[in-house]
Design brief:
By secondary structure, this protein is mostly helical. About 80% of the residues lie in helices and about 0% in strands.
Length: about 230
């Protein structure tokens, strides 16, 4: 197996690592569902706190959805590399996998599937709970689909930097939450524009650009961050 990491073709290595990550997630499904539970519990609390007033909730729904999506993603980031770090798998991966960014990208993709993609698919339910106009549901899903990869990739860098710390959750939040601000602004802004009947192309393009930039730089930044963490 160790030799296979060094000699496998990039496509084979990616698929094998992705399959391993998804299998691991399915084995601890309750832990994987925690961000989704938090998202809908928090939305319910917002609805109760506003007294169930459709006008009030609808006005703030874009910001509420995006802020809660960011926080829900934050909950799952700390454990992203933790299990592999504790059992030594992460160190073997860093030593043997060539090219290293391929399995890292597979781990990020698996993480996005159970957070960003899952939240995107469930976002219409969240939007309707907050009385967001039906006309804006499509834009809501599109903003999450184009913006959530950046959230996962940026969060992965922070998770890699703090993987060796016992209580890295607070530090992780301090590192990555400020970096989420551009995505938050364009994501919530696009939904607000859709509610107002205005065009959303500019915000969607910006979200796509941020995600593409994160995809280009993120895996290599994660790789460097993991090496730093393991050397300490």
């Amino acid at each position: 197996m160790n030799g296979g990491l060094a000699t496998a073709k990039p496509g084979t290595l990616f698929i094998a690592q992705l399959r391993r990550e998804l299998t691991s997630i399915l084995r601890s499904l309750a832990e994987a569902l925690n961000p989704l539970v938090f998202l809908f519990l928090a939305i319910t609390l917002f609805a109760l706190g506003a007294g169930g007033d459709p006008e009030t909730l609808g006005a703030y729904a874009p910001a509420i959805i995006w802020v809660l999506v960011l926080l829900a993603n934050q909950l799952s980031l700390e454990a992203m590399f933790r299990r592999d770090f504790e059992d030594g798998t992460l160190e073997q991966l860093l030593l043997l996998a060539r090219p290293l960014f391929i399995p890292i990208l597979a781990k990020v993709c698996a993480q996005w599937c159970v957070t960003g993609l899952a939240m995107t698919l469930l976002s219409p339910i969240a939007a309707m709970m907050l009385y967001l106009p039906l006309d804006a549901l499509g834009v809501t899903m599109l903003t999450l689909l184009t913006g959530s990869p950046a959230i996962t990739l940026i969060g992965a860098v922070g998770a890699a930097l703090t993987v060796g710390l016992r209580r890295g959750g607070v530090l992780l939040a301090l590192l990555v939450l400020p970096l989420f601000v551009p995505t938050l602004i364009f994501g919530a802004g696009a939904i607000m524009q859709a509610v107002a009947g205005m065009g959303t192309s500019a915000q969607i393009y910006w979200l796509m650009a941020i995600s593409m930039l994160s995809l280009t730089i993120g895996p290599f930044a994660v790789q460097a961050a993991l090496r730093i963490s393991l050397e300490q």
